[in-house]
Amino acid sequence: MLSLIVTKPHNTTTVGKLIMENNMTTLKDIQTTMQAAIHDRTVFEQAKSYAFEYMDTVNTRPVFPEPEAIDALKAFTENLPEKPCNGEKLLKMLHNYGSPATVAQTGGRYFGFVNGSILPPALAAKWLADTWDQNPALYVISPVTSHLEMLCEKWLVQLFGLPECTVAGFVSGTSTATLCGLAAGRDALLQGLGWNIHQNGLFGAPELQVIVGEQAHATVFKALSFLGLGRDRVVRVPVDKQGCMRPDSLPQLNSSSLLILQAGNVNSGGFDPLLPLCTAAREAGAWVHVDGAFGLWAACSKETDHLTNGIELADSWSVDAHKTLNAPYDNGIILCKNRAALVSSLQASGSYISYSDKRDGMLYTPEMSRRARGMELWATLMTLGREGIDALISGLCHHARKCAELLTAHDFRITNRIDFNQILVACDRPELTTATLQHLQQSGTCWCGGSDWLGEPVIRVSVCSWATTETDIELTVNAFVAARTRATIEAQ
Ligand SMILES: *Cc1c(COP(=O)(O)O)cnc(C)c1O
Fold first, then answer.
1. How far is the CA of 293 from the centre of ligand 1 (A)?
2. pTM for the structure as a whole
3. Cα 176 to ligand 1 centre (Å)
4. Best residue for ligand 1 mutational test, from 174, 180, 294 (most atoms within 8 Å of Cβ)
5. Quick count: other Cβ atoms within 10 Å of Cβ 404?
6. Contacts of 395 (CB under 8 A, 6+ apart)
7. Which of 13, 191, 361, 450 could form a cystine bridge with 136, CB 3.0-4.6 A?
8. What digits encode the pLDDT tens for the residues 440-485?
9. What's the 265 CA to ligand 1 centre distance in angstroms?
10. What are the helix (H) ranges across 312-417?
11. Tens of pLDDT along 140-162?
């Protein structure tokens, strides 16, 4: 390129341009562009207007993106460009090609997994939190996030009715929360048996008896594997038709037992009977962890709090705010009654780490640096208040029952008992269920996932969004009927 410049010395504009293009990007260039972005606000105004357009259209766009929209993702170049990209250009790309390929999860007719929507004021608080870019690792890094986490901890303990000494760590989701709870349980049990795992690791340690329900969530097994407790050597307790542990099948527990219970089966929404199970564990000196990813919130509504009876007798609990509570991603919480156990399992030390007499968030999480998700949780809890939380949870359950009622009236079979927000739906024949699900997913009207339940394929409906209305339920039921009609015609 240099020789090219030399051969055309008479054309100064070309020379200037070529030199520009040839120059390596410098920090100074980046600083100039970034300062301009802050100064003229164009990218922020642009993002805001795209966001508003999204909000305005989310209920009319296909719930699952059209194949053409997914195909158009090719517009994103495969290779990382050498040169910096203009902010307006990259936002435009996201709007033009990214947005049509989103799943319209914040609308009222997304029923996949147990995903939840997002409460607008919590989203707005997240925008602000993102602007502040705080790191809640230590009090000295961010007093405001330390303070808000402290409040969230207090409020959650009250909402769930847990022992006052319970502490909370704000993690990415229940996967991580369960890992933390089981780590604390493992370490505390071993300490009780005279073994210091922090010094000696697991080699030569006394054996622990790990007990799960036959229907424990996949993330429990993942955590057990991470923690050196093994996926396969666990005792699996038989479950009833709702996937809930049978207390009469609980093995003899002792002070080496780690009992893992579930508040909210991911398919049926069923709850393990916490009261008898936790009582037995307490008497034996076992550690109980409750995976309450979406179901723990049942404790916060008068209509459903009977489901979590005995919850306060456990030792640790994992729960998501991004599911039932409709907080923004990612927002999981580990709650633990034994602060010393949780902290000793997760604490790090180093010459540059200065703990304070205030809340230092990283004492309760595996991460050191992380997002200030406590702010969003605080905003979510403030947005709803105690009454709003109760209304949200009982409303989701009400819509689930309504949906099941209408589906039954249209000759669909409901194969679970609707304890909470989950509905499992089947047609006359397994093949028809599977084909109906496919048509339903392509309909664009709503989106549900599939699963297997009691030996047959089912369509899984998880009512988990504040935005779902009675009309959304009716539209969804109509879409079920239309999908089954198509599937029936196709089969003939
Ligand atoms: C969703 C879920 C998990 C995993 O939670 P993440 O937040 O996705 O990590 C664990 N257990 C149950 C019962 C769940 O529903």
1. 5
2. 0.94
3. 9
4. 174
5. 23
6. 466
7. 361
8. 999 999 999 999 999 999 999 999 999 999 999 999 999 999 999 9
9. 10
10. 339-346, 373-409
11. 999 999 999 999 999 999 999 99
